[in-house]
């Protein structure tokens, strides 16, 4: 289960062009610069409001902008599929990250942190953003310390402003993401998936005897197809 909700906006020329990424070599961190607005608010803005506003403007004044994932203190929402372009980091000409040349929009995944009304980042927003980057790093083989960058690092835009002003907070953030990843790897390495935990022995034995599980890999993760088998076995048993 991912730490974000897929809530894709419709394809449109201003925020979701429907173009395919050429690579996913870096994660680009942004902030919304919109104090008090939630992740869901930004789904509405980029999926509807921006489109309606642009259609009322002359072509030269229309705005093209978006990101893949928006994170607030309650949830994270992915508004653009992770294999598509988001208009997030091609403003200006500076390219401080060589791997993102010539156009970062085609090579990076953009994550936006929502701000509180006072402009700060809620601790839960920061923690959830760490979890988002843990998952992205595992998906795309990133080293968080090297492969998470700020919008500022790509184009020199002052974004995310609080962590441009205090770069140590960004450095600490990346290290926490890496620490979380290392912790998960160590836990996985230490667990013997063929051994039942003491606290689960009785229930595991009962579930196996009743045919809900086949008795193998008690400590392993369950796939959706395995869950379907178990659910159907339970349903048939209840039907009797």
Please explain how this structure is put together.
There is one protein chain. The protein has 240 residues and is α/β, with parallel strands linked by helices. 41% of the residues lie in helices and 10% in strands. The chain contains eight helices and six strands; from the N terminus they run E-E-H-E-E-E-H-H-E-H-H-H-H-H. The protein has a six-stranded mixed beta sheet with strand order 1-4-3-5-2-6, with helices on both faces. Helix 2 (123-140) crosses helix 6 (167-190). The chain is elongated and about 70 Å long.
Give the secondary structure arrangement, pairings included.
Elements: E1 5-6, E2 26-31, H1 39-55, E3 69-71, E4 76-78, E5 108-113, H2 123-140, H3 144-147, E6 148-150, H4 151-155, H5 161-165, H6 167-190, H7 201-209, H8 224-239
Parallel strand pairs: 1-4, 2-5, 2-6, 3-5
Antiparallel strand pairs: 3-4
Helix pairs in contact: 2-6
